[in-house]
Amino acid sequence: MRHLLKKLLPSVAVALTVTGSSLPIPARAQTYPIDCAILLCLSGGWPASVPCARARAEFIRRITPWPVEPPLQIWRCPMGASYENDRLQNNAGRIFEALYRTDTRRPLQSLPVDNLLPTDLALRLVQDRADIDISGPEFNFVRSIRVFDVRYARQHESGRDGDCNRSATVVLGTYGTQGDFSWQRSSITALPEAHVGLERWGEHCPGIYHRSVFVDWRDYDGNYGFEQVNY
Question: What is the crossing angle of helices 91-99 and 4-17, to 10°?
Answer without folding.
Answer: 20
